[in-house]
Write a structure and sequence with these properties.
By secondary structure, this protein is an alpha+beta fold. The chain contains 7 helices and 9 strands. The strands form 2 sheets. A 5-stranded mixed beta sheet has the order 1-6-5-8-3. A 4-stranded antiparallel beta sheet has the order 2-9-4-7. α6 (165-172) crosses α7 (176-187).
Length: 188
């Protein structure tokens, strides 16, 4: 539900600290509610979340949001778009104050060509996303929304964050009205 990747975080932290001029990787901060990447726009940097929690979401043709995932420490964003040379597939927004390592695109491209460790971390991240997407799809088919909602409420409690009803509904793929009914059923 909240994706993290400590190995990737350690890798990028090490690269950041070894830089001589601190130009290829910089640290950027985003406030709660601020957009980090925007769907259909080109990313200016590849970013890895150092601290905080974000939501990754799609805006559908009917203008409804669908939250794909919640991303935390060590999750990389903007890399698929760079590798495929396409605009952002999703928007990323800060749910809490967020700090990222922002990697210059030319530097990222050179790392892909020359750094086997980065390539292994990317392959692992891509495989993890496929597995998680498959598990989530099957889970949502097999279980009622109440089960996933209970997990969302637990995440909210564990991370001491507030997830709006709109975001909960967008994650569950239901309307706010349906969410309210589901919340009412959980209270019984």
């Amino acid at each position: 539900m909240l994706r993290t990747n400590q190995l990737f975080l350690n890798y990028l932290k090490d690269l950041y600290e070894k830089q001589e001029r601190k130009e290829d990787i910089i640290i950027r901060s985003f406030s709660k509610g601020e957009r980090i990447l925007t769907q259909h726009e080109n990313p200016s940097k590849i970013m890895l979340i150092k601290e905080g929690i974000t939501k990754c979401f799609l805006v559908e043709e009917n203008d409804k949001d669908y939250i794909v995932e919640f991303l935390g420490k060590g999750e990389i964003i903007g890399e698929i778009e760079q590798i495929r040379n396409i605009p952002c597939l999703c928007s990323i927004e800060a749910l809490t104050d967020v700090t990222v390592y922002a990697v210059a695109i030319p530097y990222f491209k050179s790392l892909i060509k020359n750094d086997l460790s980065l390539n292994n971390l990317l392959l692992d991240a891509f495989a993890e996303r496929i597995v998680n997407t498959s598990k989530r799809a099957s889970y949502q088919q097999l279980y009622a929304a109440e089960n996933t909602l209970a997990q969302l409420l637990e995440l909210q409690k564990e991370e001491s964050i507030e997830i709006s009803k709109e975001d909960m509904a967008a994650y569950l793929g239901i309307t706010v009205r349906s969410l309210n009914r589901t919340l009412k059923n959980l209270d019984k």
